[in-house]
Amino acid sequence: MLSVEATSLPPVSIALNSNESAFGPSPRAVAAARAAASGLERYYEEPAKTLAPAIAECFALDERRIVIGHGSDDLLARLARAYLEPGSELVRSANGYLKTPNYAYANDAIPVAAADTGFTASVDAILGCLSERTRMVYLANPDNPAGTYLNGAEIRRLHAGLPDHVLLVLDCAYEEYVDAADYEPAHRLVEEAGNVVMTRTFSKIFGLAGARVGWLYGPQKIVDVIDRIGVTFPVSSPSVAASLAALQDRGHVRHVFDANVRLRDDLSRSLTALGLKVYPSQTNFLLVEFPDPACSAEAACISLRHKGIALRRVASPAYRDCVRITIGLESEVKAAEQAIVAFLKEKTDARSSHCAQPG
Asked: Are residues 12 and 31 in the same domain?
């Protein structure tokens, strides 16, 4: 049963909690999906035959190395099913993508957490966790919920330390948002190695989270395995149509990228000036730490939620003092910033008033 407080909350008017693109999909993608809806009575057979060549052309890849899935989660689950076995180990960064252990648990494998440094994955710690039972190393790059990343040299150092039979899985859902000069697109290492795959998605910068389309790029032998164990008819016809149109509208992608970088950096500076700790991000969100217990992350989230603004608390003790804020439209980002300023002022004034009372 919902509490009185929960039922009295206003509806969410600004959703900055799920890392969706507030800029939405390309209008071309929306039109294409609507047109494809006229054929909803039919299955869409072999979406890879349509989507893989388009993805390959857009990103200068080999279409034979591409698998299409029902979002990247589908492909990550397939990788785990194919390459993990009972008692084997999946090594991950301790505070990286929090769903990762589930891929191991679902296959009776063991998730192994490697210590990080300030929520940034540590290559040395990951390599130190390898054992003869290790079958997979998973890394989201850039990571979620921290927004941190490893540069190309560090990713290559990680790969160089892995035995050939250990699969390196690079989850690159946020790669299109990266502006760091030392970040290396994951497909380059995939094309050089026989034990590296990357996953990507249409859910983020393309604004098609509701379409649920992801793709994997890897060595041919791995692609063949992952393709064979997929479900029949994994993607709907409107989703395929929207994805194809989204790939063609490079102007929309560039607009989203530019706006995200500007708003992300502006918000980071503003919140830092307020005394909050903002972790450097290469994604479409910021991880913000509230260091003062009197102005806690939990209280901040509750305060903003009462104003119709939804942020994300992360269900992990390591993130107890943190809030994740998705970069929305400029008006939404400004509203969230102003609400945080008001929250901090309210808490500071209340503390000052309490301290001024006679003892």
From this structure: no
